[in-house]
Design brief:
With 495 residues, this protein is of the alpha/beta class. It contains 20 helices and 17 strands. β4, α5 and β5 form a beta-alpha-beta unit.
């Protein structure tokens, strides 16, 4: 069977390791189930030097060296695959995840060391690649969901692979292959009292995909919104669609997985990574069963059960946090979420301007945004109201509306900057504008990408990068007066 080295890339050098990689842990379990020899090297946990990476690459004769992640890991991956080719020249180098899925030709061009790219969901595709290795057949033209490089160096994109419908067939993540104790040191999250006091936290997926069409979302392709079709020259390429497919594990699967995490690691906090858990919870049959099983397993926190303030020394059970959409919550649902231990809800509110929200395809409005924050607080759950500045149609008016809403709601916020990540509709729409700002060098843009707290390519029609950074600071300080003063200055200057 194939001998595989799977490397988890560094996410953010400036931040300590916080999140055990769920997708890679699940992929690891699949690889082991298939009978392969697997070694995991978690660079995000260990933060190795180049020499340490080289030692790992030379440690064995690897049939396959595989890595993957979000596009924000591109810089690390670029260096990694270069080292991999130098130190293990005979290995098949495979790359997957969000870094390659939306722009496969570009990434294969920038990374000549990569032999095969896994496009979209890799749980079926990657094992098929490994089976070809086992059979001694390096034949890739009939494997769905990959891009591959032939002997002449030309890249070929194959048709996309259908998504897995029965998610319960997936094995539980092989968390034990990762240095979880390193991650547990960073378990505390500044999102709620219970999250801040957590000692051992793990992330879990209940569902994949989202029914909404936010133009900044870069999770496309992993949930079916990207497809392959022929270009004018006849080759296949990746194109954006507006398909929305949501798939979910059964409540039984999720509860059994939480039990595994509790039994093996004594976790006290779970983050459900769903793009919109509230949307899943609106399925009454699913959530009724989930809630019942959660309580039956003893996961309901004691402080919640007794209606007491959270006390870490007293409270038993598992608190949790997740995501929600403002248009999909109501008081009853929020109370039910709280009753089984939900401590925070991460809302992508983005703006309190109806004009902006409509332009985003957000499926909400400012009134619903405000109501969601108020109801969530009333339910005893902390709302995390994410905001963004720098939308294409951002204006002084939309900025002021958001700040005034913050004042009404008592929100303290540090907005993200509108960023056209590859995979988002924004990227496909504003690619020429992005390239203009990077002198035509797309790779420089990819290397520049981090989380959206940093400025990269600006897609605003009304503000440049300096203005956006300044306006963000004024927003944080609630300084509407100076925002208005700058607005008048711009008007006098004819802008």
């Amino acid at each position: 069977m194939a001998k595989i080295l799977l490397i988890n890339p560094v996410i953010r050098y400036q931040d300590k390791p916080r999140h055990v990689p769920y997708g890679l842990a699940q992929l690891s379990a699949i690889i082991l189930k298939e009978g392969h020899q697997l070694q995991v090297f978690d660079a995000n946990a260990w933060r190795p030097t180049d020499n340490e990476i080289k030692s790992v690459l030379r440690a064995d004769k690897w049939d396959v060296i595989a890595t993957g992640g979000l596009v924000t890991t591109y810089g690390f991956i670029k260096n990694l695959v270069k080292l991999a080719r130098e130190e293990s020249p005979s290995s098949l180098i495979v790359l997957g995840g969000g870094v390659i899925t939306p722009i496969p030709y570009d990434i294969m061009s920038f990374l000549p060391e990569v032999d095969v790219g896994v496009i979209g969901e890799g749980y079926v595709t990657f094992p098929e690649v490994l089976r070809r290795i086992d059979d001694g057949r390096n034949k890739w033209d009939d494997i769905l969901g990959i891009i591959w490089r032939d002997s002449s160096g030309r890249n070929h994109l194959n048709t996309e692979r259908p998504l897995i419908n029965d998610l319960d067939k997936l094995p539980f993540p092989a968390w034990d292959l990762f240095p979880v104790e390193i991650y547990f040191r960073g378990s505390s999250l500044l999102l709620s009292e219970e999250a801040m006091l957590s000692r051992k936290r793990l992330e879990i997926m209940c569902s994949y995909g989202c029914r909404f069409s936010c133009k900044f979302c870069f999770h496309l392709g992993l949930s079916g919104e990207l497809t392959t079709k022929k270009r004018v020259d006849g080759d296949l390429d990746i194109f954006l669609t507006h398909k929305r497919k949501v798939r979910a594990h059964s409540p039984e699967y999720v509860i059994a997985l939480v039990k595994k995490a509790k039994d093996e690691f004594d976790i006290d906090f779970v983050v459900f990574l769903d793009e919109n858990f509230a949307g899943l919870a609106r399925d009454k049959e699913w959530f009724d069963k989930f809630s019942l099983l959660w309580k039956q397993m003893g996961f309901q926190p004691e402080c919640v059960k007794q209606g007491r303030e959270h006390d870490d020394s007293f409270c038993k059970g598992i608190h949790w946090g997740t995501t929600a959409h403002a248009a999909q919550v109501n008081m009853d649902l929020l109370n039910r979420l709280r009753s089984i231990g939900c401590s925070y809800l991460d809302y992508g509110l983005e703006s309190f301007s109806d004009k902006i929200l409509k332009s985003l395809g957000k499926g909400s409005n400012s009134k619903k945004n405000e109501e969601a924050v108020v109801m969530t607080l009333k339910a005893g759950i902390r709302p995390i109201p994410n905001q963004i500045i720098g939308f294409p149609d951002e204006s002084f008016e939309s900025i002021k509306k958001s700040v005034k809403a913050w004042d009404r709601l008592g929100i303290q916020n540090y907005p993200f900057l509108a960023t056209p990540y590859p995979g988002s509709e924004w990227y496909f729409t504003y690619k020429e504008k992005i390239l203009e700002q990077y002198s035509g060098n797309l790779e420089e843009f990819l290397l520049d990408l981090a989380d959206a707290t940093d400025i990269t390519a600006v897609i605003s029609k009304n503000f440049n990068s300096v203005e956006l950074l300044g306006l963000r600071e004024l927003m944080v300080n609630r300084d509407v007066k100076r925002i208005e003063e700058y607005e008048k200055t711009r008007e006098r200057m004819g802008n």
